[in-house]
């Protein structure tokens, strides 16, 4: 197997780290240094490992974490990414004890949407890249690869709570599978709740809880209390509309990332306008006080 790997043309695409370097940097994979866990599982084979590297070295976007290098040593297959010192969105929402303002959350959603839009349409591949696990950085798929060019047939993989129900039932992975998962993240930003919370019994699913509240015209009841008084009504309406469409049960009804990005940028403009009321000119002010 090792001889076959070395014969592949991919190892020079990025920096090669030795296992000793990885062990030194991670202090022998010390659990106390773990920043997060993703979906790159032990089932990954050598062929897909190198295909992943070949793809990732071609992706260059300010809203995507860059691949620095890899380690293929003593049966260890490791991808090395640029370190993100500010942590993860999940960490800020649920672990670090920090409170993100509504404007910060909007900007985060816009950055993520730009990254996904690039993956879907701007990578230079014929059909783009499907992330498949928006909740973290799981394996991406270059696709579609079926005869009709509409989807990728794959074993269902992803994080429950974010998983596209249509993909779960059919095994057909499309860009709209990413859109569904992104919609869940949008509601996480709005509600400040995890996608799944088993401590809440009947309300453990964020998607179900949010959907039922919106249907009952109780949108304000689901907003994170930390930002409830910050949100412009017009911004909220637009944000909920686009997030709700992302979660359509039928993928054909979900918007493309370009439309989602446009809507989120509009949300930010509406919010900024709300936060910066127009001041009367000096002439008008004089007329009012005379």
UniProtKB/TrEMBL annotation:
Domain Protein kinase: 1-268
Keyword Transferase carried by entry: yes
Keywords, ordered alphabetically: Transferase
Domain of life: Eukaryota
GO molecular function, one term: protein kinase activity
InterPro entries from the UniProt entry: ANXUR1/2-like, Kinase-like_dom_sf, Prot_kinase_dom, Ser-Thr/Tyr_kinase_cat_dom
Gene Ontology cellular component terms for the protein in this record: plasma membrane
Keyword Ion transport found: no
UniProt name for this protein: Protein kinase domain-containing protein
Protein species of origin: Helianthus annuus
């Amino acid at each position: 197997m090792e001889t076959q790997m070395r014969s592949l043309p991919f190892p020079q695409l990025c920096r090669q780290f030795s296992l000793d370097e990885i062990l030194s940097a991670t202090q022998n994979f010390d659990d106390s240094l773990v920043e997060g866990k993703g979906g790159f599982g032990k089932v990954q084979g050598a062929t897909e490992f190198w295909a992943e590297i070949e793809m990732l070295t071609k992706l260059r976007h300010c809203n995507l974490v860059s691949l620095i290098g890899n380690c293929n040593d003593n049966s260890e297959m490791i991808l090395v990414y640029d370190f993100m010192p500010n942590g993860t969105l999940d960490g800020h929402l649920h672990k670090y004890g920090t409170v993100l303002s509504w404007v910060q959350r909007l900007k985060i959603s816009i950055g993520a949407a730009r990254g996904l839009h690039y993956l879907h349409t701007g990578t230079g591949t014929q059909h783009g890249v499907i992330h498949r696990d928006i909740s973290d950085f799981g394996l991406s798929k270059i696709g579609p690869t079926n005869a009709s060019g509409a989807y990728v047939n794959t074993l269902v993989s992803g994080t429950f709570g974010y998983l596209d129900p249509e993909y779960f039932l059919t095994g057909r992975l499309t860009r709209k599978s990413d859109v569904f998962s992104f919609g869940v993240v949008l509601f996480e930003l709005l509600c400040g709740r995890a996608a799944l919370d088993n401590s809440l019994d009947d309300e453990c699913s964020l998607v179900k809880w949010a959907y039922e509240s919106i249907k009952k015209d109780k949108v304000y009841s689901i907003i994170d209390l930390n930002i409830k008084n910050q949100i412009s009504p017009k911004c909220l309406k637009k944000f909920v509309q686009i997030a709700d469409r992302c979660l359509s049960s039928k993928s054909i009804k979900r918007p493309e990332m370009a439309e989602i990005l446009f809507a989120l940028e509009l949300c930010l403009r509406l919010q900024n306008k709300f936060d910066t009321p127009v001041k009367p000119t000096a002439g008008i002010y004089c007329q009012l006080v005379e």
